[in-house]
Design goal:
This protein has 506 residues and is α+β, with helices and mostly antiparallel strands. 57% of the residues lie in helices and 10% in strands. The protein contains 23 helices and eight strands. Strands 1-2-8-4-5 form a five-stranded antiparallel sheet, with no helix packed on it. Strands 3-7-6 form a three-stranded antiparallel sheet, with no helix packed on it. The radius of gyration is 26 Å and the shape is globular. The chain starts with a helix and ends with a helix. The relative contact order is 0.12.
Length: 506
């Protein structure tokens, strides 16, 4: 993003400036909310491009978001500030939450998890006071714009939540609310999902066409049962070892205790869902029995991602019980909180002892290459920045510059032929050849090609910006329309209340 902003590229989608990138487009396909936070961090640092400083600020912002979301959800759920603080402690001290910060370094997943308590509070509100049902569409939107696999986790929870409460949720008011929520979600996220669908259809992206795991692979990524229960560093399976794939020992004991001593039957049902998610993250659930044609769940990729929801469930629904105990036995709750905070040391230890002094910019991940790029022979040369392997000896690129963030080239061609340009082929590209618009050719190696006659030509690679700009306008207009409707409804409720208080005798 820094490179794209420095090159004044709009929209900032492609990277042509770092060696080995070839226009590699993580920005175009990955959920954008973390990118917005990096933009905010750049503003906070007065346009500094110090990546380490930006990263620290973004991590801090996400941590603050998690704190606020957990506190708000806990306080609203139990009408208690103490419950809000206890919910926050249980949530942000979880081994899995801290793993995403300090070990796995999964910013998008960490940000999505930060919004999870709000989604759960919205769902709970459907069964109770309905004060916070608006959290459902807007927290789901935040989760989707942070991490798509986490949205699948959210969808799995909501499906189970709907099934176990189906009699209370099936009515005309809720059905209307669900439809309105879906419309809001789709309209506000149009700037992301419309270009994504376009490229899924036309760009042959590896992540969306060939990278989906089989359910046997999903099973191999599961965690060990003892690691999960006792919050031990992972060694089981093919996941990166050393992660803490657990909600936390104390959190798990509190969840089990709630089933015995908790008073809310709906909360007990949801905690049972959390315990199922914890079980499903381990090798005890035979994921390999699911048919691969049922691909929806595979988008989650790793079963331990269910822990993001399980952690939030335990924190939110047990914090009320703990707040009640606080009134009678404050020392017991203080001890529990201290143990939770002390347990943060273990997932943080590696980051404390192995300091990052720089970030790696040269990594070429396979996710958003096309299927031709990803073939073993092509990928090896792209990874090593070996354009000579792809270059046409009879067509030399003598000069390369940039206009509005997109490359301009002077190409000298000996005889009419197809020339290979050092850029990954994405749908939406077009060329200006000597100021004349020309279609691109997709080459077998997955790079951009163009037919040129003998001689010297100026060639500019450009992107059809309307693919992104038009959906962006849809989202912006939708934002103002939805905001107007919310303000209008809010003022109408206030007027009705004022009228009732003034004229009605009761």
């Amino acid at each position: 993003m820094n490179e794209e902003l420095d090159a004044q590229q709009f929209p900032p989608l492609f990277n042509y400036w770092l060696p080995g990138q070839f226009g590699y487009s993580w920005q175009l396909f990955y959920p954008p909310l973390t990118s917005f936070l990096f933009l905010l961090a750049r503003i906070i640092t007065f346009n500094s491009t110090d990546n380490i400083l930006q990263m620290k600020i973004v991590l801090f912002i996400i941590f603050v978001i998690a704190f606020i979301c957990a506190f708000y959800a806990g306080k609203r759920e139990h009408n208690s500030s103490a419950a809000g603080y206890l919910c926050t402690i249980l949530f942000i001290t979880s081994g899995y939450f801290l793993t995403n910060i300090f070990i796995r370094f999964a910013l998008g997943e960490m940000l999505a998890m930060a919004f999870m308590p709000l989604f759960l509070r919205g769902c709970s509100s459907l069964l109770g006071d309905r004060r916070d049902i608006w959290l459902i569409p807007f927290s789901a939107l935040a989760i989707a714009l942070s991490n798509m696999p986490s949205l699948i986790v959210t969808a799995i929870f909501f499906l189970l939540f709907f099934i176990i409460n189906i009699k209370r949720l099936i009515n005309r008011i809720n059905i209307r609310f669900f439809l309105e929520s879906l419309i809001c979600f789709m309209a506000l996220s149009a700037f992301y999902w419309i270009p994504l669908l376009y490229h899924m259809r036309h760009s042959d992206i590896f992540a969306t066409h060939a990278k989906l795991l089989s359910y046997e692979d999903v099973f191999r990524f599961s965690s060990g049962i003892m690691e999960n229960l006792f919050s031990l560093p992972s060694k089981y399976g093919v996941s990166n070892h050393g992660m803490y794939l657990s909600v936390g020992v104390i959190q798990l004991l509190i969840a089990i205790g709630y089933l015995r001593y908790g008073r809310s039957a709906p909360a007990k049902k949801v905690i049972l869902v959390a315990l199922f998610f914890i079980l499903a993250a381990t090798h005890l659930l035979p994921w390999y029995l699911l048919p691969d044609r049922f691909s929806f769940l595979k988008i989650m990729q790793f079963p331990w991602r269910l822990l993001s929801c399980a952690t939030a469930i335990v924190a939110l629904f047990t914090s009320g019980m703990l707040a009640g105990i606080w009134q009678r036995r404050p020392l017991a709750i203080l001890l529990m909180a201290a143990l939770c905070i002390a347990s943060m040391f273990f997932p943080m230890n590696q980051a404390l002892t192995e300091r990052h002094t720089r970030l790696e910019h040269m990594g070429l991940w396979d996710d958003y290459l096309n299927n031709s790029n990803i073939r073993e022979d092509n990928f090896a040369h792209l990874y090593n920045n070996d354009f000579a392997y792809f270059a046409n000896k009879n067509a030399s690129i003598t000069t390369t510059g940039y206009t509005d963030g997109y490359p301009d080239m002077i190409i000298t061609v000996r005889g009419e032929q197809t020339v290979t340009l050092p850029y990954i082929m994405y749908a939406g590209y077009y060329l200006l050849v000597d100021d004349k618009k020309t279609d691109v050719s997709r080459l077998d190696n997955g790079l951009v090609g163009v037919k040129l006659t003998a001689g010297e030509h100026r060639v500019s690679l450009l992107y059809e910006r309307n693919i992104v700009v038009v959906p962006m306008m849809v989202s912006i207009i939708s934002f103002f329309i939805i905001s107007f409707i919310i303000i209008f409804r809010h003022r109408r409720v206030i007027r009705i209340r004022m009228f009732s208080q003034r004229f009605l005798p009761f």
